[in-house]
Design a protein that fits this description.
Blueprint (H helix, E strand, L loop, with lengths): L3 H32 L4 H22 L3 H16 L8 H23 L3 H22 L8 E5 L2 H4 L2 E5 L18 E5 L1
Antiparallel strand pairs: 1-2, 1-3
Helix pairs in contact: 2-3, 2-5, 3-4, 4-5
Length: about 190
């Protein structure tokens, strides 16, 4: 006959094992999200939007207010065409929130004649895009780089996404074109 201590210890060991097993499953799901698993139709739409994002970034690198305004309009059009219905419910809600924030920021860029105001709004878009790439993937064949400038916005720092490793800073343009570093590759 087993003592109550042995029964309790066995039960505790089983619970701990099951608990760690659950953690591993959650970790696997997190890893899948980090790898950017999204349905192909959404990834196709997302890659189109990402291409428009790169064009907007390039306009800010050139410090071209008019071109940034135009590219923000193209970005908004691509953003509007993303169909979140193909995403799982939790991802759908998160995408809807990000989409609204990016649309508001792109509207500011589109309507502004001040490049610094455009760059501030671009920071919001870049943050939401980086989060989205981590969640859904890029949908692109070539790598996408997350880059970071520690000096942007009075040394608070800001990130952006790029198609190339070579730094072309959208927050400073030709004033500090190469200020920044590659933080991550997707």
């Amino acid at each position: 006959m087993k003592s109550p201590f042995i029964k309790y210890a066995t039960l505790l060991l089983v619970c701990i094992t099951l608990g760690f097993g659950s953690c591993n499953n959650a970790s696997d799901r997190q890893s899948a999200a980090e790898k950017g698993v999204a349905p192909q139709p959404f990834q196709d739409q997302f890659s189109t939007m990402l291409t428009e994002y790169f064009a907007l970034k390039d306009a800010l690198v050139k410090t071209s207010v008019g071109e940034a305004s135009q590219k923000a309009g193209a970005f908004r059009a691509a953003l509007e065409k993303t169909d979140e219905a193909t995403l799982e419910e939790g991802n759908r809600e998160e995408w809807t929130r990000r989409k609204e924030e990016m649309d508001q920021a792109a509207t500011i860029i589109q309507q502004s004649a001040d490049v610094e105001e455009q760059r501030t709004a671009f920071q919001t878009i870049s943050n939401r895009m980086a989060e989205s790439v981590q969640t859904y993937g890029t949908g692109m064949q070539q790598p996408v780089y997350q880059q970071y400038c520690p000096m942007a916005f009075n040394d608070t720092g800001a990130l952006w996404l790029a198609q190339e490793k070579k730094i072309a800073n959208p927050y400073f343009g030709d004033r500090m074109l190469r200020c920044g570093e590659v933080q991550r590759e997707f």
